[in-house]
């Protein structure tokens, strides 16, 4: 009568063996190394994306001012890559629509932005960019910063007639911030945001989905030393939020290798539980006393059979 097979040990009984614990420690070190390499690849992915964004911003700054119409049409979506691009446009200021944007700081001092509508007369396209619209578009222009909600006349005075404006583009803001603003007797109306969606209800005609931060104008407005609004520095261009896909997938590969190392140890433990190499049917029959020379042995080698259509041979 064949010997009874040994009792199957539990997973944890096998896993606690010194040999298995040593293998686990080695594989965990390998998994830790793979995880660290994956984190390094992610850091590299964002670093390369940031460097690409910074290089793009530097190239845009060095390119000089472009005609507004070559980059952005009125009432069209604002591409993110236009943030910080320098543009030139010609138009007429409409001081009656002027607003002060509350809660904006300059050099750590909280104050107000002077926001003035510019009715565009030339964006470099000869009017083609708004030919299908209801009329000439209006571009929100931040002419500078003032400390008081009731600045002097010099800060609110705009150059008369047609003005050539140069400035940095910024995307329109949202109107998500809640809460009303108080009346501003003695000064322009107040607003919280530079939001084209809200300004369209205040200013007539088509509007751009971005605004310009003034750097210069011809004729020039009153300088800050004479009571005019203080010009803002160029908007800071930060690195992009994108990720370099090549390094990202390298990181995934390293993490998969780390998981594979842990899975390998689990497989080793389970194999040890099963007693190492799995026995074939012939091995089990031989252990039971069959020498395998008979028909049964042949059928074990070919469990399907050698007859026609897979049937056993007679």
TrEMBL record:
It is found in: Cell membrane; Membrane. InterPro entries: Surf1/Shy1, Surf1/Surf4. Residues 276-314 are annotated as: Disordered. CDD domains: SURF1. Signal peptide: none annotated. Keywords: Cell membrane, Membrane, Transmembrane, Transmembrane helix. The keyword Transmembrane helix applies. It is a multi-pass membrane protein. Its main location: membrane. The chain crosses the membrane at residues 248-268. Belongs to the SURF1 family. PANTHER family: SURFEIT LOCUS PROTEIN, SURFEIT LOCUS PROTEIN 1. This is SURF1-like protein.
């Amino acid at each position: 009568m064949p010997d009874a097979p040994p009792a199957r040990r539990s997973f944890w009984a096998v896993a606690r063996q010194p040999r298995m614990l040593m293998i686990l420690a080695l594989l965990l070190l390998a998994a830790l190394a793979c995880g660290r390499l994956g984190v390094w690849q992610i850091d590299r992915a964002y670093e390369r994306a940031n460097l690409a964004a910074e290089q793009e911003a530097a190239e845009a700054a060095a390119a000089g001012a472009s005609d507004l119409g070559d980059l952005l049409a009125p009432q069209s979506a604002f591409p993110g890559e236009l943030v910080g691009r320098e543009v030139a446009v010609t138009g007429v200021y409409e001081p009656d629509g002027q607003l002060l944007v509350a809660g904006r700081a300059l050099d750590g001092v909280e104050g107000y932005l002077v926001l003035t509508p510019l009715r565009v007369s030339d964006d470099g396209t000869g009017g083609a960019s708004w030919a299908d619209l209801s009329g000439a578009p209006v571009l929100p222009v931040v002419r500078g910063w003032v400390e008081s909600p009731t600045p002097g006349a010099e800060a609110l005075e705009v150059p008369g007639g047609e003005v050539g404006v140069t400035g940095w583009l910024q995307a329109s803001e949202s109107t998500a911030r809640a809460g009303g603003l108080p009346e501003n007797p003695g000064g322009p109306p107040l607003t919280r945001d530079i939001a084209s969606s809200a300004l369209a209800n205040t200013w007539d005609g088509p509007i751009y989905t971005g605004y310009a931060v003034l750097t210069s104008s011809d004729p020039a407005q009153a300088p800050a030393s004479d009571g005019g609004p203080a010009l803002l520095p160029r908007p800071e261009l930060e690195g992009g939020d994108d990720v370099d896909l090549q390094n990202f997938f390298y990181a995934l590969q390293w993490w998969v290798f780390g998981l594979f190392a842990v899975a390998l140890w689990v497989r080793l433990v389970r194999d040890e539980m099963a007693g190492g190499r799995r026995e074939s049917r012939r091995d089990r029959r031989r252990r039971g006393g069959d020498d395998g020379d008979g028909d049964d042995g042949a059928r074990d080698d070919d469990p399907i059979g050698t007859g026609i259509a897979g049937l056993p041979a007679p």
